[in-house]
């Protein structure tokens, strides 16, 4: 079954860490975007990660409901069924969950996995993200420890963050007045994260090194990937090479390919991709509408063209556009051709 089991997901992380590549983590909001991500992974022969934000969950549950956890369960269950058509491994993840949403978002999703496991099924999710980076590091780690205990009981990996990723992405954002030093996780912070969590269960760590959510022209975002190298060195010098952490790159849109690939040598095994795939999905729709204006609309009392305003006519193009961008992400992260499907 292409949705990775907990053990397969851990082997995916190990493989990426040991071979210096990373998985694109594609934010999805619908069946269309799920299929686009899976098609892109498959055409690249790359395993990958699909993730949902609280905003995606609210959207999927319906405008009248806006129930983030329920919507994510709907999307995840759909992903488990759709993934059976593809021949790569896919892991399910949730994106930024702030502390004030953890009780109503993460806990129901962890419980949904527990219920699935009780029925003899695989995990609904293999990975959840608790983003308590708006708290002090001590408070962040205390809350992260609580949720890592819950996740570990269900063989779920927990993603945590320390430091602030600038910009805004689907409700997750740093403030405009964030001091510059907060955009860069220190080696001491990385050591503290490892010491707080490593005995509880498996975790991934979104360390910050100047990365910013949203889209910017190449060179506009001042990344300092060496921060990751220095932090990993601080951890491994004290605890040995086995302590090297699985790192996550947030806010990668607009980053230069050489900057992205430099982070792979420092332990990045996952990079979130959302802004670029949103644009790749929307761009073909805009082109369709602008070049078929009189067919999409019933202009001046005319009847339009049903084949042109049928949503499938432009949503197929949107799905293809997003799928192509997912394949580019696989190439950028060197995961292309490295699927473990059928091997683990």
User: What characteristic shape results from the CA principal axes?
Assistant: globular
The CATH C-level name is Alpha Beta
Averaging pLDDT over every residue, what do you get?
Answer: 92
What are the secondary-structure elements, in order, as H or E? HEHEHHEHEHEEEHEHEHEHHHH
Strand order of the largest sheet: 3-2-1-10-9-8-5-4
CATH-scheme architecture: Alpha-Beta Barrel
State the helix count: 13
- Helix proportion range: 40-55%
Largest sheet: 8 strands, parallel
Oligomer: single chain
CATH topology tier name: TIM Barrel
- The structural class is alpha/beta
Q: What Rg do the Cα atoms give?
A: 20 Å
Topology:
Layout: H1 6-19, E1 23-27, H2 31-43, E2 48-52, H3 54-61, H4 68-82, E3 90-94, H5 99-118, E4 127-130, H6 137-153, E5 157-162, E6 168-169, E7 172-173, H7 187-197, E8 203-207, H8 226-239, E9 246-249, H9 257-264, E10 268-273, H10 275-291, H11 293-296, H12 306-309, H13 311-332
Helix pairs in contact: 2-13, 3-4, 4-5, 6-7, 7-8, 10-13
Structural notes for this entry:
This protein has one domain (6-281, 323-332): Aldolase class I (TIM Barrel), CATH 3.20.20.70. α3 (54-61) crosses α4 and α7 packs across α8. It has helices at residues 6-19, 31-43, 54-61, 68-82, 99-118, 137-153, 187-197, 226-239, 257-264, 275-291, 293-296, 306-309, 311-332, and strands spanning 23-27, 48-52, 90-94, 127-130, 157-162, 168-169, 172-173, 203-207, 246-249, 268-273. Helices cover 49% and strands 13% of the residues. It is of the alpha/beta class and 344 residues long. Residues 173-177 have low confidence and may be disordered. An eight-stranded parallel sheet has the order 3-2-1-10-9-8-5-4, with helices on both faces. The protein has a two-stranded antiparallel sheet with strand order 6-7. The longest helix is centred in the C-terminal third of the chain and has 22 residues, at 311-332.
């Amino acid at each position: 079954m292409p949705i990775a089991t907990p053990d397969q997901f851990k082997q995916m992380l190990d493989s990426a860490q040991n071979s210096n590549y990373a998985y694109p983590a594609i934010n999805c909001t619908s069946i269309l975007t799920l299929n686009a991500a899976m098609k892109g992974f498959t055409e690249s022969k790359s395993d990958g990660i699909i993730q949902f934000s609280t905003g995606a969950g609210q959207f999927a549950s319906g405008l009248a409901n806006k129930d983030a956890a329920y919507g994510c369960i709907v999307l995840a269950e759909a992903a488990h069924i759709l993934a059976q058509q593809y021949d790569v491994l896919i892991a399910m993840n949730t994106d930024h969950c702030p502390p004030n949403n953890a009780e109503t978002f993460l806990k129901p999703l962890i419980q949904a996995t527990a219920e699935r496991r009780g029925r003899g099924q695989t995990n609904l999710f293999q990975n959840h993200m608790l983003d308590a980076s708006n708290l002090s590091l001590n408070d962040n780690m205390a809350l992260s420890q609580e949720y890592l205990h819950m996740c570990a009981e269900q063989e779920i990996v927990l993603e945590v963050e320390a430091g602030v990723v600038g910009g805004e992405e689907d409700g997750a954002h740093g403030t405009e007045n964030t001091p510059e030093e907060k955009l860069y996780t220190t080696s001491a912070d990385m050591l503290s994260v490892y010491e707080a969590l490593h005995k509880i269960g498996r975790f991934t760590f979104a360390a910050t090194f100047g990365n910013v959510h949203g889209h910017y022209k190449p060179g506009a975002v001042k990344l300092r990937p060496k921060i990751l190298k220095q932090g990993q060195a601080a951890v491994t010098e004290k605890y040995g090479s086995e302590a090297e952490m699985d790192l996550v790159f947030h806010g990668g849109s607009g980053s230069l390919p050489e900057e992205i690939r430099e982070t792979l040598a420092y332990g990045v095994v996952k990079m979130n991709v959302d802004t670029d795939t949103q644009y790749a999905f929307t761009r073909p729709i805009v082109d369709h509408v602008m070049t078929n204006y009189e067919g999409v609309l019933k202009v001046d009392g005319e009847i339009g063209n049903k084949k042109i305003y049928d949503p499938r006519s432009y949503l197929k193009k949107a799905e293809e556009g997003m799928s192509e961008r997912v394949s580019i992400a696989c190439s950028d992260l060197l995961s292309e051709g490295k699927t473990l499907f059928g091997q683990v």
